[in-house]
Amino acid sequence: MVPEGLHYTKAHEWVKVEGDRGRIGITDFAQSQLGDIVFAELPPVGRTLRQMEPFGVVESVKAVSDLYCPLTGEVLEVNSSLESNPEQINADPYGGGWMIVARIADPNELKNLMTAEEYGTYLAAEGH
Amino acid sequence: MSEATGSFKRTPLYEVHRQLGAKMIPFGGWEMPVQYAGILEEHRAVRERAGLFDISHMGEIEIAGPGALEAIQRLTTNDASRLSIGEVQYSALTTPEGTFVDDITVYKFADDRYWLTVNAANTEKDVAWISDHVATVAEIRNISDTISLLAVQGPRAQEILQKLTSVDLSTLKYYFFVQGNVAGIPCCISRTGYTGEDGFEVYSPPQHATTLWNALIEAGAPVGMQPCGLGARDTLRLEAKMALYGQDINDRHTVLEADLGWIVKLEKGTFIGREALAHQKAEGVSRKLVGFEMLGRGIARPHYAIAKEGTPIGEVTSGGPAPSLGKNIGLGYVAAQYAAIGTEWDIVIRGQPVTARVVRTPFYKRAR
Question: Which residue segment(s) compose the domain that A105 sits in?
């Protein structure tokens, strides 16, 4: 369930490197833990985020959860369709449920993230 | 019914829930299913068809003896003398200040025998409170461990339950109960619930809880009944504006402030909290629990501040999406001058004011 080629945070975000850009979302594990997602609050285009800075919020029926930015960079795109259809995050967390695209300021920061294999091991160690 | 494991108690259906893939959470000292298929799907099942809930964490306290009615009258705000045998009454155990010890339902089995069904987290506290105040008047027994409680809720509930009992459910009115067999198990069938739908709460011996659960699941499957967890129970009760102890009501707010004046019967005679409530009724409440819907984009959550032009005027006690209404709703206490229907003010969400409006409650009312 953990796609290869992405980079993962301990807070269960993923980033997919697309040239000098990073596409960012939450993992399948994160969405399944949250349950039915009913609300997403995302940053405006143009904001610069630092690595592991909170960049928004997702809310399920019962819970509010902060989102942490995997990499430092300026927000270039926001998935505005999540405003009216936040359930896409449940249905397709690695696809249609993406949240933002940011310009990668420092590729070295990828070293601070987990590979798919490491994230899988991390989930297992956490008892999942 | 309880089975202590570690720090949380488990109902007799714990393993059944696990096998059904339920997500378990701690609630009121218990490890309970919060969801099976998903809160929204379970919510819809109850509104459109039916849902089955394990609510065995609820507590039951028996009040018996010639002084039983007198004891209940002293402890509660509603008038239990109006109950006939087989009738249920929503009521409150109150402090001398008129605030909640708990909200409860009173069941009259006989002139000298009543049950109180109480909130799980409050059971021990309630037993102690009741014993402190009326132990010399009536016999008090915590019978929670001898009872399991299942709720079948939704427009198809009667049809489902009727398959398993010879009791004619069509003659059982809302807030009445009857003793009879369900799936061959001796039960107490109560036409009550916490969802805003028609439905039943079935009290049974815990050793038969699994048999009863499975029989209900089987009977409900053809009409699309689903097992439901505490998550859906919460969204359903919020739409129906049924108060939740620990959130909407507690020992800091009076029954009148909670907008539950209809369960306060000052004329019935003396009871704990009567003076305070009579005084408050005459003076008028200074704050009140109201229902609101969000006009701006955002979801209100418990403890968020309510503000008018930047000045705090209250606090959210419950909030979330109302799946049957397609809106975000909530309950909260506000200063009385801001409690009128149609009043607009803000919910402060992560530091930002988001407009909300006081609306008529219940938010959701089923078609009858």
Answer: 7-125
